[in-house]
Q: What sequence folds into this?
C-alpha cells in the first residue's frame, strides 16, 4: 500500500490573547465544517471526558480540568467538547474565563444529561451549564443519548424542548449524540427539524457506517467520539505500516482517516505534546489505498467499545456516579 504526503487543507487563522499564560499563536490549518444551521464548526476539537480523575466537580477537579483545557487552547484548539455528565463544565468555564481568547473565536459544545430529558428540565439544565461555562450561549447543544427505554420512550418531546432553546438563542445549533437511524428518523418526522450534528462512536475498528450514512443523508454532520478507539489499536500492523510510510504516528493516521471521511473529531489527551501532535494532521493526505486498508479494519458491531444506543439507560446518581460499561 502507499500513502502520499500532500498539503491540501484550507487554512483558518485565529488571533488570540491569554491573560495568565503565554500563547503560541499559530495557524493550525483546521478546516471548518458548514452545519445545516448555517454555523461552522472546526473539524477537530478537544474532548474533555476523563481529563480529571472522576466526574465530580470538586475544587481540585476544576483546577485540573482548567489547566488541561488552557493547555489545549495554547496548542491551538478552538473547539471544546464537554457534557453535563462529564463533570468538566466548571473547569472549562474557568479556562474560558482566564484564557483571554475572544468568545467569537471559540466553539463550545455541551450535552444534555440523561437525568434531564423531561421537557421542563431541559432549559434549566442548559442555563446551569451556561453559568458553569461563563458564557451566554453554547455553539452546539446535543442530546447525549436517546434513552429509548426510559421516559416512556419519548425523546421527541426532549428534542422539541431543545428546538425551543435554539429559538431562544441559548444554543446556536442543536444536535444529537448516539442516535441510530430509527431515532433520527423519528425526531425529524415528528418535528421537521433536522439535527446539525450526530456525535457517535467511530474509529477504524467500528466505522459505524449505517449511522454515519443515515446522518449524512439527512444533511447531518457526523462527529466521532473515541476517534482513536481509546488507544486499543495503536499497535495494529496496518496502521503501524501506514504511519511508518508517512513518518507519522498511528494516532495521526487514525485522525487523518476520519478527516478525509468528512468526520468531525474530538480526541482527548492531557499531554501537551500529544495535543500538538493530534492537531498536526492537515499537512499530509492518506492515499486511496491507505484509506481502503484502514476501512478493512472495520469489525462491525464486534468493534463497538461503548454501550449500544438502543439499550443504554444509565442516569447519574449517588449510587451509580459512573456508567457500568
A:
Amino acid at each position: 500500500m502507499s500513502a502520499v504526503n500532500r498539503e491540501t487543507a484550507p487554512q483558518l487563522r485565529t488571533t488570540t490573547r491569554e491573560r495568565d499564560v503565554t500563547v503560541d499563536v499559530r495557524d493550525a490549518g483546521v478546516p471548518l465544517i458548514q452545519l445545516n444551521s448555517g454555523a461552522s464548526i472546526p473539524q477537530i476539537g478537544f474532548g474533555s471526558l476523563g481529563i480529571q480523575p472522576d466526574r465530580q466537580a470538586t475544587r481540585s477537579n476544576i483546577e485540573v480540568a482548567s489547566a488541561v483545557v488552557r493547555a489545549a487552547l495554547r496548542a491551538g484548539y478552538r473547539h471544546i467538547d464537554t457534557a453535563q455528565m462529564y463533570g468538566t463544565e466548571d473547569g472549562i468555564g474557568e479556562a474560558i474565563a482566564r484564557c483571554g481568547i475572544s468568545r467569537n473565536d471559540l466553539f463550545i459544545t455541551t450535552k444534555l444529561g440523561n437525568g434531564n430529558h423531561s421537557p421542563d428540565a431541559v432549559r434549566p439544565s442548559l442555563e446551569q451549564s451556561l453559568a458553569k461555562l461563563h458564557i451566554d450561549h453554547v455553539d452546539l447543544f446535543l442530546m447525549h443519548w436517546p434513552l429509548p427505554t426510559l421516559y416512556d420512550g419519548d425523546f421527541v418531546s426532549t428534542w422539541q424542548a431543545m428546538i425551543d432553546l435554539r429559538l431562544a438563542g441559548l444554543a446556536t445549533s442543536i444536535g444529537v449524540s448516539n442516535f441510530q437511524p430509527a431515532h433520527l428518523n423519528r425526531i425529524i418526522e415528528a418535528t421537521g427539524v433536522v439535527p446539525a450534528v450526530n456525535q457517535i462512536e467511530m474509529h477504524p475498528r467500528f466505522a459505524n457506517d449505517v449511522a454515519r450514512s443515515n446522518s449524512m443523508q439527512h444533511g447531518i454532520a457526523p462527529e466521532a467520539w473515541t476517534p482513536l478507539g481509546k488507544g486499543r489499536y495503536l499497535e495494529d500492523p496496518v496502521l503501524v505500516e501506514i504511519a511508518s510510510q508517512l513518518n507519522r504516528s498511528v494516532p495521526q493516521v487514525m485522525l487523518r482517516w476520519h478527516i478525509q471521511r468528512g468526520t468531525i473529531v474530538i480526541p482527548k489527551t492531557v499531554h501537551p505534546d500529544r495535543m500538538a501532535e493530534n492537531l498536526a494532521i492537515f499537512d499530509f493526505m492518506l492515499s486511496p489505498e491507505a484509506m481502503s486498508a484502514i476501512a478493512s479494519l472495520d469489525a462491525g458491531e464486534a468493534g463497538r467499545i461503548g454501550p449500544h444506543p438502543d439499550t443504554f439507560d444509565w442516569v447519574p446518581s449517588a449510587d451509580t456516579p459512573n456508567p457500568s460499561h
